[in-house]
Amino acid sequence: MKQGFIIGLLWLFWMISPVAQSAGKHVTSISAANAPALPELLINWKPKKGDLIDGKPYEGDLDANGPWAKTKRLPELHHLVGVELLKSMHPPAETMPLGDKKELVCKTCHGIKKIEDLPFDKVDKKADDFLKGGPYEQLTDFCYNCHEKKDHERPNIHVMLDKQGEPIEKNCKYCHSEVLKRDRAYKPAELKLRIPRETLCYGCHLKTPHLNAFEHQVKPSKEKLKQLQESVKNLGIILPLSDKGEIMCVTCHSPHPNGVLDKKLAASKQVPNNDLKEGVTYKKHPWSEVYAADKQARLDEFNDKNKTHLSVQYERISAEVLLRLPAKDGKLCEACHTFTDRAY
Q: In which region does residue 80 sit, left (phi positive, over 0), alpha (psi from -120 to 50) or beta (all else)?
């Protein structure tokens, strides 16, 4: 999924670049006339003898691992080089300089000296200055030096009500093939979902987005199932299982915010709305200092080994979103589990 996202992002870069918009405009890395079609260009293209590079027939070393200065061959999934930026793009000139013709060059993005002369396997991709201003927690954080973050954000389809409190129907149709009635309880087979309930969320979310998510995606034991059914009955909520009787994302999470479904429906019962754009929020806790000290030695070892700069702190949940019961005080867990050592 991550590779597919990166390919999609690079495709977007190509589509907004002057190379795509005006074939033949200044290109230093390849001739637009010789360039193969995407996605071949992004994945496995390399120049052949006779291809035009900077207007001259290519005579370089075809070694797949050879340095850029010699082979004029980019690593797989590399951003295009030698293209002029759109006028709306303004990377910081002091730290991300462009070429003489305002085109992307190696030193625009990379801080490693003479990186163009290094074979690919000699480039330290974990170096802090591999990407200018790094290290970055997410690759896309680096991309936003040129690209507007807002223009590339994924829409939050769980924001389903407009300012008048009416459903935003286009958001309904991400998951449903048609807009359903808000005041009716539907059976699973009647929901008009585009793909099965147990895999629908994976179109946007990871299968394991939080602690113990994977371990919960199983069929509950007879004891746990009985307790779940009693919780549903006593609390007037729903905790739906898959067609195979297994726990799934929507067992615990509500896909709809408060106000979308009629209040009389059990499916509408959930925690009070926090700001859906803000998501789950946390607050600082005095225990954080003790927690960090306990983890510090292991974290230092991990950072040294992986050349990362991770830190940890202990926080408590302040507000939750899209949960059928509160998790911060354990009520959601207690729908299926029994605890004898609660300290709150």
A: beta
Query: What is the domain extent for residue 290?
Result: 281-319
The alpha carbons of the chain give a radius of gyration, in whole angstroms, of 26
Pair of tokens at residue 252: 């615990």
Distance spanning both ends of the chain, measured CA to CA: 40
234 contacts: CB under 8 Å, gap ≥ 6:
none
Task: Quote the pTM value.
Answer: 0.61
Same domain, 14 and 140: yes
Q: Write out the two tokens for 295.
A: 């983890």
Question: pLDDT tens digits for 235-252?
Answer: 999 999 999 999 999 999
**Alpha carbon 329 to chain centroid, angstroms:** 28
Residue 86 and residue 180 share a domain: no
Residues 3 and 148 reside in one and the same domain: yes
